[in-house]
Amino acid sequence: MTVTWEEPGWEQLAPGVGRRRLPGWDCTAGLVLGADGVLAVDAGSSLAEGARLRTGARELTGRRVTHLALTHPHFDHVLGAPAFADAEVYGAVGLDVALAGRGREELRADAVRWGLDPAAAEEAVAALVPPRHAVSGEWTLDLGGGRRALLANVGPGHTAHDLAVLVPGDPDVVFCGDLVEESGEPQAGPDAVPSRWPDALDRLLRLGGEDAVYVPGHGAVVDAAFVRAQRDALAARFGVSE
């Protein structure tokens, strides 16, 4: 499927693959286009932001988003998911539990603590539905016309439920979620697993290889050398042996 990526805010990463950097928390949302399906990667921080992403994707492609991959259970990546109610939603194993019960209240509180309007946070959390599809290892989506996307459970690291998305092409593109951050130091909150984070980045590098474009959860796209340097810095920061 050919798209010119002329809609404001979208950045082409490879043929049929793009992303946009969302305002507020500079969170990345990705888009992968196939002949039969459209995959979104992450959904933004609120129902309104998710709706803008959904509408923007339709304006860009002329088609609805059919699949949604959530890279991890933080508010700026998942609270827009209810806006994609007719999409098949994927997440790492355990993400459904993280977005249910007490996890929902923690998600709402975290969103408000970071500055989201309390009413918007409450609305989004109330509408949130856990992912239907749980990825334990790797899951290949066939989007048609030869376009495939590999969902890979590469965590834990930034959280206990980190999912990456590899889109083979020219070049290969890897959506990293917040396992990689470019616009600031990687954030290790109470749900991070620091001892496993460097290993997660090793798996990410094996997934994409030396020539891939790596898309952080926040910031500009980077290369394998950047990911490797961040891996080494995290290992030193958390006292993880090589």
TrEMBL record:
<protein>
    <submittedName>
        <fullName>MBL fold metallo-hydrolase</fullName>
    </submittedName>
</protein>
<dbReference type="Pfam" id="PF00753">
    <property type="entry name" value="Lactamase_B"/>
</dbReference>
<dbReference type="InterPro" id="IPR050855">
    <property type="entry name" value="NDM-1-like"/>
</dbReference>
<feature type="domain" description="Metallo-beta-lactamase">
    <location>
        <begin position="26"/>
        <end position="218"/>
    </location>
</feature>
<dbReference type="InterPro" id="IPR001279">
    <property type="entry name" value="Metallo-B-lactamas"/>
</dbReference>
<dbReference type="InterPro" id="IPR036866">
    <property type="entry name" value="RibonucZ/Hydroxyglut_hydro"/>
</dbReference>
